[in-house]
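Duplicate of earlier report; Cell wall hydrolase/autolysin input re-posted below.
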Amino acid sequence: MKSILTNIRLDTKAANNCIKENKSLIGFDFYTDIPEYSVEKSDGDYIIVFKDASMNMPVGTYTVDDGIIDKIILKQDEKKVEATIKLSMESDSDIKVSNGVPAKIDFYVDRTPLKKILSGKKIALNPVHKKTTKSPTNLLPQVPMNDIAKKVSELLNSLNAKPHIIESNYSDSIAINDDVKYDIAISFATEASLKDESGFKIYYDEQNNKSKRLAEILNKAVERKSPLNNLGIHAKKYSDEPFEIPIVTIVPAIENSRLDDAHLRDIDYRSKIALAVFNGILEYFKSNSSSPILN
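Output:
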């Protein structure tokens, strides 16, 4: 009798305990018995072949996008199920098998290779505080902004980066500490809209080309995670003198939109945004290491 694959577990939020332990987890659930399987490596990706197995779920591509695993591609024929795990960079793996109902195969991918990109990077994280709010439910903006910044900081710390959360700042124009030479600076803020908008947007320093590049990368990273509309990137002047480092402001939702307000209250949404920001930071430094961006 064929084993039946009934579910794939993809936990791609920043609060995932595996991610905090520098592991990415892909879980395969089978109806009763775990089939015979093999694991191969091809061009840095993993291919798991489950023999004498079928699927009670759709074939196709499942997006993970957690910094190390890009996606999973599931295929099936009469005799086997094939899962291709596409990685952003080569890494080791481990497997844990649990019998029961369902029977589980947990496939772990080591995240520590990401340290090669992030180790030692100094990143200022600025959750902007506001004395008033236009939230329809009176949600103080600093509550979700602090939570997102904290989650981003935890992800960066786990990979030997050096994030610093700026406390109680009432402006997204960060007062950079002369004693610390940051590599990038990211503010988190909400804003009210007069256009009945709903969505996320990102501002960049109009006097710094690196800032625009960082905003472009972060915008694409957030778009992959957020169900809200992409309101684009926008230039602004942060100060009379241009910052030497790239500085951006991420607005993960519109403050006076009921839909956006509900998302800001959602812990899972904050966690998705935090992982998206982490992914954007990772991609920015990765692109710089291969092709430096000149200001």
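Helices lie at 17-20, 115-118, 142-157, 209-225, 258-265, 267-290.

Merging into the original ticket.
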